[in-house]
Amino acid sequence: MVLLIMSNCCIECFKDKYLREFIQLLSNSGDCDFCGRSNVALCDLNAAKYKELGLAISALINLYEVSSEDDSNSKLIKHALYDDWNVFNIIPDAIQKLIENEIILDFVSNKELLFKPVIIPQRYDNDYLNENCIVRENNWKEFTEIIKYKNRFHSAAFNYDAFASFISYSIKLYNKDDVMYRARISSSDEVYGKNSMGVPPKVKRMAGRVNPDGIGVLYLASEPNTALSEVRASAFDFVTIGQFVAKQQVKLVDLSGLLSISPFSYESESALLNHAINLGVLKDIVSDIAKPMRRSDSTLEYLPTQYIAELIKSEGYDGVEYKSTIAKKGFNLAIFNEDLFECVNTYLIEVEELEYLSRAI
Fold first, then answer.
1. Residue 2: what pLDDT?
2. Structural domain count of the chain
3. Which of 100, 115, 271, 340 could join 266 in a cystine, given CB atoms 3.0 to 4.6 angstroms apart?
4. How many Å apart are CA 137 and CA 132, to the nearest integer?
5. CA 120 vs CA 80, 134, 201, 263, 272: distances in Å
6. Residue 62 and residue 175 in one domain
């Protein structure tokens, strides 16, 4: 019997931006053996020009070690690659078929990794975790409890250096004259002027997703509807929309982008390993920054993301970007220095109706 190795792999088999760009650059169009899509950007894993793809994926595999079958933390490599990395867009069985191609297999240090239970041992090494995890014990929920109820300002549970190493890979630049928006509910049908659309005065600065009480942060949105959603205007409210432009280049940390960092961006195996052990915490941070808040929620719920924002501010960045919790297609900026943007225009709108979506719980 002849073993048929599938070799035509398409761009849609991957989430990772590095691999997608690599395939797009060298690809032809065709039908994918792994996900079944037709007429897509395709690479032939038998072709020598895709050697770099094989090197990249094998680097992930080589982080693992063969484990005993009774180790509850171990899993087959196809599940490990699917669960542990934000790289693949195909099911584990398809991943298994993909990594059995010679262009990947040739660079795998131990061929048993492809067929036996595997583990990344550093994930269960307390000394390694304490030195390299963003939060001690690799437990974001425990850190949030500490910062809310035990030690708010100087928490030894947070590894500042480990976090800083990740945000440097999630930078976003806004150029001079780029446009953003801000909304403010009006008390009447009179539009607010440009000078009234900035950060509230000190006595009115309430705690928000990024700022503690009293600290001024300029919250902006990617488009008017997102800005309108963020102020939670009601039907028949009058709302002033302010149009803001950047006065210079602005350098932000894209918090949502922390999950889009390609593991292939790193130049060392140790950095790649640290990505693996911290991906769960990065997911928790992104989830927290995007978590919807109810009016009844305590402002203590903002503390973890305020803590993160203060660390980013201390690194010299101008603000953070994060997905809107209400307008699913929009995103927000929190600018630490409001002087980086200028309100150039305002206009008034009236909310005519609201559409409520609900789900049973």
1. 39
2. 2
3. 271
4. 10
5. 9, 17, 51, 15, 12
6. no
* Number of residues in the chain: 361
Sign of CA dihedral 273, 279, 280, 281: positive
Residue 2 domain-assigned (yes or no)? no
Structure tokens at 73: 């933390």
Q: What single letter denotes the amino acid at residue 259?
A: L
* Per-residue confidence (pLDDT) for residue 250, from 0 to 100: 97
Per-10-residue mean pLDDT, the chain, length 361: 69 94 87 93 89 93 90 92 94 95 92 95 88 85 86 80 90 96 88 90 77 86 89 82 96 91 91 91 86 67 87 93 80 94 93 66 67
The range of the structural domain enclosing residue 23 comes to: 8-119
60's enclosing H/E stretch is helix 51-61
Sign for the CA dihedral angle at 286, 290, 291, 296 comes to positive
Same domain, 313 and 245: yes
Tokens standing for residue 168: 């440097």
Same domain, 28 and 134: no
Q: Which two tokens stand for residue 324?
A: 């809107």
C-alpha 331/C-alpha 251 separation (Å) is 16
pLDDT of residue 211: 80
Q: Is the pTM of this model over 0.70?
A: yes
Residue with tokens 């669960």: 83
Same domain, 109 and 163: no
Do 114 and 203 belong to one domain? Answer: no
One domain for residues 155 and 93: no
- The enclosing H or E element of 147 equals helix 140-149
Query: Which amino acid does the sequence have at 241?
Result: I
Residue 206 confidence (pLDDT)? 78
Q: Which amino acid is at 216?
A: G
Residue labelled with tokens 């990024």: 210
206 and 89 fall within a common domain: no
> Which pLDDT belongs to residue 91?
96
